[in-house]
Amino acid sequence: MASCELLAVVVSAGPSEFWDLLSLSVGYPTPEKMARVRQGYREALGCGLIAAVLDGCLVGAIGYQDSAGGVEVKHLAVRPDKRHSGIARALIQGVIATFPGKVLFAETHDGAVGFYNRLGFQSKPLPRKLGSETRWKCRRQTNVEK
To answer: Which domain holds residue 135?
Structure first.
């Protein structure tokens, strides 16, 4: 498992490299859509961003929004050449450590639901699909060790 440093990112000052990486978790990330994503993090209450840095290189990114109902993972991305090395797990654990006792939830697809389940999330299929893929709602209490 990679041991990476987790750093908070200031939305207005986030380097383009950060947004390029985060775009890997955005469906059809056109420049216009990414501008809206960035604006959403800048304007919505409770939003935050964390970067994972390994050996001085940006390797992962997570965006979340805290609300009365819990903390939603809005985007989670890891550089393709660094996947399956513990970086996404470290990013999720960084959010959990920031919000002890809160419910953490995410919406994901068939290819990522197993990742969330391995981290202790409970997953339920949503009634809608994205193309042929099932969408999943994943939920986890943050004070549970995993």
So the answer is: 5-141
Number of structural domains found in the chain: 1
Q: Is 86 within a domain?
A: yes
- Asked whether residue 37 is domain-assigned, the answer is yes
Which tens digit of pLDDT belongs to each residue from 23-67?
999 988 999 999 999 999 988 889 999 999 998 899 999 999 999
Please tell me whether the overall predicted TM-score, pTM, comes out greater than 0.90 for this model: no
Q: Are 142 and 99 in contact (CB under 8 A)?
A: yes
